[in-house]
Amino acid sequence: MTEPCAVTNESSDRYKAMLLRSQQQHRLIGVHWELTYRCNEKCTHCYLDVLPPGARLPGELTTAEAKRVIDELAELGALTITFSGGESLVRRDFFEIAAYARKRGFAIRLYTNGILIKPEVADQIAALHPVAVELSIYGADAATHDDITTLPGSFDLTIRAARLLRQRGVKVILKTPITRENWDQMEAMRALATEIGAGWQYDLTIVPKHTGDRSPLKHRMNDNQLLEVFRREIDPGSWHLTPYREDYRFCGIGLTSLTIGPYGEVFSCVGARVSAGNVREQPLVAIWRESPVWQELSGLTLGNLPVCSTCELRQYCVRCHGNAAFEDGDMLGCSSVAYREARLRRQALRGKGAK
Protein backbone atom coordinates (compact mmCIF):
# COMPACT_ATOMS: atom_id res chain seq x y z
CA MET A 1 0.00 0.00 0.00
CA THR A 2 2.98 2.32 0.32
CA GLU A 3 4.19 2.17 -3.28
CA PRO A 4 1.58 4.51 -4.82
CA CYS A 5 2.38 7.12 -2.18
CA ALA A 6 6.08 6.82 -2.94
CA VAL A 7 5.41 7.35 -6.64
CA THR A 8 3.20 10.33 -5.89
CA ASN A 9 5.80 11.90 -3.63
CA GLU A 10 8.54 11.30 -6.18
CA SER A 11 6.41 12.90 -8.90
CA SER A 12 5.68 15.85 -6.62
CA ASP A 13 9.39 16.30 -5.91
CA ARG A 14 10.19 16.21 -9.64
CA TYR A 15 7.51 18.82 -10.31
CA LYS A 16 8.84 21.09 -7.56
CA ALA A 17 12.36 20.75 -8.95
CA MET A 18 11.15 21.54 -12.49
CA LEU A 19 9.22 24.57 -11.23
CA LEU A 20 12.26 25.87 -9.34
CA ARG A 21 14.46 25.52 -12.44
CA SER A 22 11.83 27.32 -14.53
CA GLN A 23 11.66 30.17 -12.02
CA GLN A 24 15.43 30.52 -11.99
CA GLN A 25 15.55 30.51 -15.79
CA HIS A 26 12.56 32.85 -16.24
CA ARG A 27 10.88 30.22 -18.38
CA LEU A 28 7.26 30.84 -19.32
CA ILE A 29 4.95 27.99 -18.26
CA GLY A 30 1.42 29.29 -17.76
CA VAL A 31 -0.68 31.97 -19.47
CA HIS A 32 -3.92 33.48 -18.22
CA TRP A 33 -5.74 34.98 -21.20
CA GLU A 34 -8.71 37.32 -20.74
CA LEU A 35 -10.25 37.00 -24.18
CA THR A 36 -12.93 39.65 -23.58
CA TYR A 37 -14.32 41.94 -20.92
CA ARG A 38 -17.84 41.31 -22.22
CA CYS A 39 -20.01 39.19 -19.96
CA ASN A 40 -23.58 37.92 -19.75
CA GLU A 41 -23.59 38.37 -15.97
CA LYS A 42 -22.91 41.55 -14.01
CA CYS A 43 -21.67 40.25 -10.69
CA THR A 44 -21.70 42.79 -7.90
CA HIS A 45 -18.35 41.59 -6.50
CA CYS A 46 -16.43 41.60 -9.82
CA TYR A 47 -13.11 43.43 -10.06
CA LEU A 48 -13.81 44.27 -13.71
CA ASP A 49 -16.25 46.77 -15.18
CA VAL A 50 -17.67 44.23 -17.61
CA LEU A 51 -19.43 45.18 -20.82
CA PRO A 52 -22.67 43.77 -22.30
CA PRO A 53 -22.19 40.46 -24.17
CA GLY A 54 -23.28 41.96 -27.47
CA ALA A 55 -21.17 45.12 -27.26
CA ARG A 56 -19.28 45.98 -30.45
CA LEU A 57 -15.61 46.11 -29.50
CA PRO A 58 -13.33 46.49 -32.52
CA GLY A 59 -10.35 46.80 -30.17
CA GLU A 60 -10.35 43.15 -29.07
CA LEU A 61 -7.63 40.98 -30.56
CA THR A 62 -8.85 39.45 -33.79
CA THR A 63 -8.88 35.71 -34.45
CA ALA A 64 -5.76 36.06 -36.59
CA GLU A 65 -3.98 38.08 -33.92
CA ALA A 66 -4.92 35.52 -31.26
CA LYS A 67 -3.49 32.71 -33.38
CA ARG A 68 -0.28 34.66 -33.89
CA VAL A 69 0.04 35.10 -30.12
CA ILE A 70 -0.49 31.36 -29.66
CA ASP A 71 2.34 30.73 -32.13
CA GLU A 72 4.58 33.05 -30.12
CA LEU A 73 3.64 31.33 -26.88
CA ALA A 74 4.59 28.01 -28.48
CA GLU A 75 7.93 29.51 -29.51
CA LEU A 76 8.52 30.48 -25.87
CA GLY A 77 7.78 26.93 -24.77
CA ALA A 78 4.73 27.74 -22.64
CA LEU A 79 2.69 24.72 -21.57
CA THR A 80 -0.75 25.86 -20.44
CA ILE A 81 -3.33 28.47 -21.42
CA THR A 82 -6.28 29.41 -19.21
CA PHE A 83 -9.02 31.17 -21.17
CA SER A 84 -11.19 33.56 -19.18
CA GLY A 85 -12.98 36.88 -19.47
CA GLY A 86 -15.40 38.45 -18.78
CA GLU A 87 -17.10 35.46 -20.30
CA SER A 88 -14.88 33.97 -23.00
CA LEU A 89 -17.71 31.99 -24.59
CA VAL A 90 -19.43 35.18 -25.78
CA ARG A 91 -16.67 35.43 -28.39
CA ARG A 92 -17.96 33.74 -31.52
CA ASP A 93 -14.45 32.65 -32.42
CA PHE A 94 -13.73 31.08 -29.01
CA PHE A 95 -13.68 27.51 -30.27
CA GLU A 96 -11.54 28.40 -33.27
CA ILE A 97 -8.97 30.02 -30.97
CA ALA A 98 -9.10 27.24 -28.37
CA ALA A 99 -8.86 24.49 -31.02
CA TYR A 100 -5.81 26.21 -32.50
CA ALA A 101 -4.18 26.29 -29.06
CA ARG A 102 -4.82 22.57 -28.68
CA LYS A 103 -3.38 21.96 -32.15
CA ARG A 104 -0.20 23.76 -31.04
CA GLY A 105 0.02 21.40 -28.07
CA PHE A 106 -1.20 23.55 -25.19
CA ALA A 107 -3.06 22.19 -22.20
CA ILE A 108 -6.30 24.16 -21.95
CA ARG A 109 -8.22 25.32 -18.91
CA LEU A 110 -11.47 27.29 -19.17
CA TYR A 111 -13.03 29.72 -16.69
CA THR A 112 -16.72 30.31 -17.44
CA ASN A 113 -20.05 30.98 -15.78
CA GLY A 114 -21.56 28.20 -17.90
CA ILE A 115 -24.66 30.10 -18.98
CA LEU A 116 -24.04 29.44 -22.68
CA ILE A 117 -23.21 25.75 -22.22
CA LYS A 118 -25.99 23.75 -23.85
CA PRO A 119 -25.50 20.12 -24.97
CA GLU A 120 -23.90 21.04 -28.30
CA VAL A 121 -21.55 23.52 -26.62
CA ALA A 122 -20.64 20.92 -24.00
CA ASP A 123 -19.77 18.57 -26.88
CA GLN A 124 -17.42 21.19 -28.34
CA ILE A 125 -15.75 21.79 -24.99
CA ALA A 126 -15.28 18.05 -24.42
CA ALA A 127 -13.66 17.79 -27.86
CA LEU A 128 -10.95 20.18 -26.64
CA HIS A 129 -10.01 17.72 -23.85
CA PRO A 130 -9.49 20.54 -21.36
CA VAL A 131 -7.49 19.97 -18.20
CA ALA A 132 -10.53 21.35 -16.38
CA VAL A 133 -13.48 23.69 -16.73
CA GLU A 134 -13.93 25.97 -13.73
CA LEU A 135 -17.45 27.26 -13.12
CA SER A 136 -18.20 30.09 -10.70
CA ILE A 137 -20.96 29.60 -8.14
CA TYR A 138 -21.81 32.14 -5.48
CA GLY A 139 -24.10 30.15 -3.21
CA ALA A 140 -25.73 26.80 -2.60
CA ASP A 141 -29.09 28.04 -3.82
CA ALA A 142 -30.48 30.17 -6.60
CA ALA A 143 -31.47 33.06 -4.35
CA THR A 144 -27.91 33.63 -3.06
CA HIS A 145 -26.18 33.02 -6.38
CA ASP A 146 -28.55 35.06 -8.54
CA ASP A 147 -28.42 38.00 -6.16
CA ILE A 148 -24.67 38.25 -6.83
CA THR A 149 -24.87 37.75 -10.61
CA THR A 150 -27.94 40.02 -10.88
CA LEU A 151 -29.24 37.53 -13.47
CA PRO A 152 -32.32 35.52 -12.49
CA GLY A 153 -31.96 31.87 -13.44
CA SER A 154 -28.16 31.96 -13.64
CA PHE A 155 -27.69 29.43 -10.82
CA ASP A 156 -29.75 26.80 -12.63
CA LEU A 157 -27.88 27.43 -15.88
CA THR A 158 -24.48 27.12 -14.20
CA ILE A 159 -25.44 23.86 -12.49
CA ARG A 160 -26.86 22.58 -15.79
CA ALA A 161 -23.50 23.30 -17.43
CA ALA A 162 -21.65 21.41 -14.71
CA ARG A 163 -23.85 18.34 -15.19
CA LEU A 164 -23.59 18.45 -18.99
CA LEU A 165 -19.81 18.59 -18.83
CA ARG A 166 -19.54 15.82 -16.26
CA GLN A 167 -21.77 13.62 -18.45
CA ARG A 168 -19.11 14.03 -21.15
CA GLY A 169 -16.24 13.15 -18.86
CA VAL A 170 -14.92 16.70 -18.51
CA LYS A 171 -13.26 17.53 -15.21
CA VAL A 172 -15.30 20.28 -13.55
CA ILE A 173 -14.36 22.49 -10.62
CA LEU A 174 -16.95 24.68 -8.94
CA LYS A 175 -15.22 27.69 -7.43
CA THR A 176 -16.57 30.21 -4.98
CA PRO A 177 -15.40 33.54 -3.63
CA ILE A 178 -16.46 33.41 0.01
CA THR A 179 -18.56 36.42 1.00
CA ARG A 180 -20.71 37.59 3.88
CA GLU A 181 -23.69 36.30 1.89
CA ASN A 182 -22.50 32.70 1.39
CA TRP A 183 -19.94 31.92 4.11
CA ASP A 184 -22.47 29.81 6.01
CA GLN A 185 -23.25 27.77 2.86
CA MET A 186 -19.75 26.37 2.37
CA GLU A 187 -20.62 22.83 3.41
CA ALA A 188 -23.73 22.88 1.24
CA MET A 189 -21.69 24.03 -1.78
CA ARG A 190 -19.09 21.35 -1.11
CA ALA A 191 -21.86 18.76 -0.95
CA LEU A 192 -23.43 20.07 -4.17
CA ALA A 193 -20.13 19.71 -5.99
CA THR A 194 -19.73 16.16 -4.70
CA GLU A 195 -23.23 15.26 -5.85
CA ILE A 196 -22.45 16.57 -9.35
CA GLY A 197 -19.10 14.78 -9.45
CA ALA A 198 -17.14 18.03 -9.47
CA GLY A 199 -14.40 19.48 -7.33
CA TRP A 200 -14.97 22.55 -5.19
CA GLN A 201 -12.55 25.34 -4.37
CA TYR A 202 -13.09 28.51 -2.38
CA ASP A 203 -11.28 31.82 -2.35
CA LEU A 204 -11.34 34.53 0.32
CA THR A 205 -10.27 37.22 -2.13
CA ILE A 206 -12.68 40.11 -2.67
CA VAL A 207 -10.87 43.13 -4.11
CA PRO A 208 -11.74 46.62 -5.36
CA LYS A 209 -12.40 47.11 -9.03
CA HIS A 210 -9.28 47.93 -10.99
CA THR A 211 -10.80 51.34 -11.70
CA GLY A 212 -10.51 52.08 -7.97
CA ASP A 213 -14.22 51.53 -7.25
CA ARG A 214 -14.42 49.95 -3.79
CA SER A 215 -18.04 48.79 -4.01
CA PRO A 216 -17.13 45.06 -4.25
CA LEU A 217 -15.70 45.26 -0.71
CA LYS A 218 -19.23 45.31 0.75
CA HIS A 219 -19.20 41.54 0.16
CA ARG A 220 -16.22 40.85 2.42
CA MET A 221 -16.89 38.84 5.56
CA ASN A 222 -16.64 40.60 8.88
CA ASP A 223 -14.03 39.47 11.39
CA ASN A 224 -16.31 37.07 13.24
CA GLN A 225 -17.41 35.34 10.03
CA LEU A 226 -13.85 35.04 8.72
CA LEU A 227 -12.59 33.69 12.05
CA GLU A 228 -15.31 31.04 12.03
CA VAL A 229 -14.32 30.01 8.49
CA PHE A 230 -10.69 29.66 9.58
CA ARG A 231 -11.70 27.62 12.60
CA ARG A 232 -13.65 25.24 10.40
CA GLU A 233 -11.30 25.02 7.45
CA ILE A 234 -7.70 25.30 8.64
CA ASP A 235 -5.87 22.12 9.56
CA PRO A 236 -2.93 22.94 11.87
CA GLY A 237 -1.13 19.86 10.62
CA SER A 238 -1.02 21.17 7.05
CA TRP A 239 -0.18 24.80 7.88
CA HIS A 240 3.58 25.09 7.89
CA LEU A 241 5.14 28.13 9.51
CA THR A 242 8.06 28.99 7.26
CA PRO A 243 11.22 30.17 9.04
CA TYR A 244 12.32 33.67 8.06
CA ARG A 245 14.20 33.68 4.75
CA GLU A 246 15.06 36.81 2.80
CA ASP A 247 14.46 34.96 -0.49
CA TYR A 248 10.96 33.74 0.51
CA ARG A 249 8.22 34.62 -2.02
CA PHE A 250 4.53 35.03 -1.30
CA CYS A 251 3.83 34.17 -4.95
CA GLY A 252 5.62 33.55 -8.24
CA ILE A 253 4.89 36.95 -9.80
CA GLY A 254 7.25 37.76 -12.68
CA LEU A 255 8.80 34.30 -12.84
CA THR A 256 6.91 31.75 -14.98
CA SER A 257 3.54 33.23 -15.95
CA LEU A 258 1.81 36.21 -17.49
CA THR A 259 -1.67 37.54 -18.26
CA ILE A 260 -2.91 38.75 -21.65
CA GLY A 261 -5.80 41.21 -21.84
CA PRO A 262 -8.45 41.44 -24.57
CA TYR A 263 -6.71 44.36 -26.28
CA GLY A 264 -3.25 42.81 -26.36
CA GLU A 265 -1.81 44.21 -23.13
CA VAL A 266 0.57 41.85 -21.35
CA PHE A 267 0.35 41.98 -17.56
CA SER A 268 2.39 40.47 -14.75
CA CYS A 269 -0.66 38.63 -13.41
CA VAL A 270 -4.40 39.02 -12.88
CA GLY A 271 -3.91 40.53 -9.43
CA ALA A 272 -1.12 43.09 -9.80
CA ARG A 273 -1.67 43.90 -13.49
CA VAL A 274 1.68 45.58 -14.08
CA SER A 275 1.97 46.18 -17.82
CA ALA A 276 5.00 44.75 -19.61
CA GLY A 277 3.96 45.73 -23.15
CA ASN A 278 1.40 45.08 -25.85
CA VAL A 279 1.48 42.28 -28.44
CA ARG A 280 0.30 44.73 -31.11
CA GLU A 281 3.37 46.87 -30.56
CA GLN A 282 6.08 44.24 -30.20
CA PRO A 283 6.37 40.45 -30.36
CA LEU A 284 5.39 38.58 -27.22
CA VAL A 285 8.77 36.85 -27.28
CA ALA A 286 10.46 40.24 -26.96
CA ILE A 287 8.10 41.33 -24.18
CA TRP A 288 8.87 38.20 -22.17
CA ARG A 289 12.61 38.27 -22.73
CA GLU A 290 13.35 42.00 -22.71
CA SER A 291 10.83 43.94 -20.62
CA PRO A 292 12.43 45.25 -17.40
CA VAL A 293 9.17 44.56 -15.56
CA TRP A 294 9.99 40.90 -15.00
CA GLN A 295 13.33 41.61 -13.35
CA GLU A 296 11.74 44.22 -11.10
CA LEU A 297 8.93 41.90 -10.03
CA SER A 298 11.21 38.94 -9.48
CA GLY A 299 12.78 40.96 -6.68
CA LEU A 300 9.58 40.90 -4.60
CA THR A 301 11.03 38.65 -1.93
CA LEU A 302 10.46 38.94 1.79
CA GLY A 303 13.81 40.64 2.28
CA ASN A 304 12.77 43.40 -0.13
CA LEU A 305 9.42 44.07 1.53
CA PRO A 306 10.38 46.34 4.43
CA VAL A 307 7.08 46.12 6.33
CA CYS A 308 6.54 42.41 5.78
CA SER A 309 10.08 41.40 6.72
CA THR A 310 9.59 42.68 10.29
CA CYS A 311 5.89 41.82 10.71
CA GLU A 312 5.05 39.37 13.50
CA LEU A 313 2.26 37.92 11.34
CA ARG A 314 4.36 37.13 8.27
CA GLN A 315 4.23 33.37 8.87
CA TYR A 316 0.43 33.46 8.81
CA CYS A 317 0.15 35.78 5.83
CA VAL A 318 -1.10 34.96 2.33
CA ARG A 319 -0.22 38.22 0.66
CA CYS A 320 -1.12 39.42 -2.83
CA HIS A 321 1.10 42.24 -4.11
CA GLY A 322 -1.76 43.38 -6.33
CA ASN A 323 -4.08 43.84 -3.35
CA ALA A 324 -1.45 45.96 -1.64
CA ALA A 325 -1.15 48.11 -4.76
CA PHE A 326 -4.84 48.53 -5.62
CA GLU A 327 -6.30 48.79 -2.13
CA ASP A 328 -3.48 50.35 -0.11
CA GLY A 329 -1.56 52.23 -2.80
CA ASP A 330 1.85 50.59 -2.38
CA MET A 331 2.89 47.23 -3.82
CA LEU A 332 5.80 47.09 -1.38
CA GLY A 333 3.75 48.11 1.64
CA CYS A 334 1.38 46.31 3.94
CA SER A 335 -1.71 44.75 2.42
CA SER A 336 -4.39 45.66 4.94
CA VAL A 337 -6.65 42.77 3.98
CA ALA A 338 -3.77 40.27 4.16
CA TYR A 339 -2.83 41.61 7.59
CA ARG A 340 -6.40 41.20 8.85
CA GLU A 341 -6.59 37.65 7.51
CA ALA A 342 -3.19 36.78 9.01
CA ARG A 343 -4.27 38.06 12.43
CA LEU A 344 -7.43 35.96 12.39
CA ARG A 345 -5.64 32.94 10.91
CA ARG A 346 -3.13 33.03 13.78
CA GLN A 347 -5.98 33.24 16.28
CA ALA A 348 -7.72 30.22 14.72
CA LEU A 349 -4.52 28.15 14.57
CA ARG A 350 -3.56 28.92 18.16
CA GLY A 351 -7.07 27.99 19.20
CA LYS A 352 -6.40 24.56 17.67
CA GLY A 353 -3.16 24.14 19.58
CA ALA A 354 -0.68 25.35 16.95
CA LYS A 355 2.34 27.26 18.24
Which SSEs are present, and which pair or pack?
Layout: H1 3-25, E1 30-34, H2 63-76, E2 80-84, H3 94-103, E3 107-112, H4 119-127, E4 132-136, H5 142-149, H6 154-167, E5 172-177, H7 186-196, E6 199-203, H8 223-233, E7 257-260, E8 265-267, E9 275-278, H9 284-290, H10 292-298, H11 306-309, H12 321-328, H13 336-351
Parallel strand pairs: 1-2, 1-7, 2-3, 3-4, 4-5, 5-6
Antiparallel strand pairs: 7-8, 8-9
Helix pairs in contact: 2-3, 8-13
Give an account of the 3D structure.
The chain is built from 13 helices and nine strands. 40% of the residues lie in helices and 12% in strands. The longest helix has 23 residues, at 3-25. It starts with a helix and ends with a helix. Strand 7 and strand 8 form a beta hairpin. It has a nine-stranded mixed sheet with strand order 6-5-4-3-2-1-7-8-9. It is globular, with a radius of gyration of 21 Å. It is α/β, with parallel strands linked by helices. Helix 8 (223-233) crosses helix 13. The model is unreliable at 1-7 (pLDDT under 50).
> What shape does the CA trace take?
globular
**Overall mean confidence score, pLDDT:** 92
Specify the number of helices: 13
The structure class reads alpha/beta
Side by side, the strands of the main sheet go: 6-5-4-3-2-1-7-8-9
Query: What's the gyration radius in Å?
Result: 21 Å
Number of strands: 9
H-E string:
HEHEHEHEHHEHEHEEEHHHHH
Spans of at least 5 consecutive residues with low confidence: 1-7
Distance between the termini: 33 Å
Measured as a percent range, the helix fraction is 40-55%
Largest sheet: 9 strands, mixed
> How much strand?
5-15%
